[in-house]
Amino acid sequence: MSETKTPLRLAGVVRESIVDGPGIRMTVFVQGCPHHCKGCHNQHTWDFEGGYQSSVERVLEEAAKDPLLKGVTLSGGEPFCQAEALTVLAKRAHKMGLNVFCYSGFTFEKLMADFDTHPEYKALLEQCDWLVDGPFIEEEMSLMLHFRGSRNQRILDVPKSLKEGKAVLSEYH
């Protein structure tokens, strides 16, 4: 399959966001999530059959039109449920000079533990600059947190975390 035809199932795209990572970002909300966190503000993204079909190429064409963008944020839904397509998107975003911020209901440790059965998880993580990991926990919610919804979630420096084989907090945590 050609990289330019790599399909994505999306819930939507926010072309300019300042709340989903550092700088002005394009936020890509993927469709489909197995976590179903109580109090989730993106419940419409849970259904794997919902949303609409798009492509990596189409998303990146839109990103290329905006000279203000500093990066792309992968959100959802659960990005790791579409890890193969998002790896292509993230690689190409980096080639465009954009950084990659990713949200996941999985913890970094869970993703690492699944590398053997899900090598696509490792491939996507290798393309992420930052990861907000862990499920949203309504009882831990705080509006004072930077780029995350609940206190249990961490903002990780993914390259350092992969290098050290353990979660390393980023400067944004």
Automatic annotation (TrEMBL):
What InterPro entries does the annotation carry? Aldolase_TIM (IPR013785), NrdG (IPR012837), Organic_radical-activating (IPR034457), Radical_activat_CS (IPR001989), rSAM (IPR007197), rSAM_sf (IPR058240)
Q: Which GO terms describe its molecular function?
A: 4 iron, 4 sulfur cluster binding; [formate-C-acetyltransferase]-activating enzyme activity; metal ion binding; ribonucleoside-diphosphate reductase activity, thioredoxin disulfide as acceptor
Q: Which reaction does this enzyme catalyse, per its entry?
A: glycyl-[protein] + reduced [flavodoxin] + S-adenosyl-L-methionine = glycin-2-yl radical-[protein] + semiquinone [flavodoxin] + 5'-deoxyadenosine + L-methionine + H(+)
Q: What is its EC number?
A: 1.97.1.-
Q: Which cofactor does it need?
A: [4Fe-4S] cluster
> Does the keyword Cytoplasm belong to this entry?
no
Q: What class of enzyme is it?
A: oxidoreductase
Q: Matching Pfam families, A to Z?
A: Fer4_12 (PF13353)
Keyword list (alphabetical) reads: 4Fe-4S, Iron, Iron-sulfur, Metal-binding, Oxidoreductase, S-adenosyl-L-methionine
The answer to whether UniProt assigns keyword ATP-binding to this entry is: no
Q: What protein family is recorded? A: Belongs to the organic radical-activating enzymes family.
Q: What does this protein do?
A: Activation of anaerobic ribonucleoside-triphosphate reductase under anaerobic conditions by generation of an organic free radical, using S-adenosylmethionine and reduced flavodoxin as cosubstrates to produce 5'-deoxy-adenosine.
Q: Per its UniProt record, what PANTHER family does this chain match?
A: ANAEROBIC RIBONUCLEOSIDE-TRIPHOSPHATE REDUCTASE-ACTIVATING PROTEIN, PYRUVATE FORMATE-LYASE-ACTIVATING ENZYME
Q: What is this protein called?
A: Anaerobic ribonucleoside-triphosphate reductase-activating protein
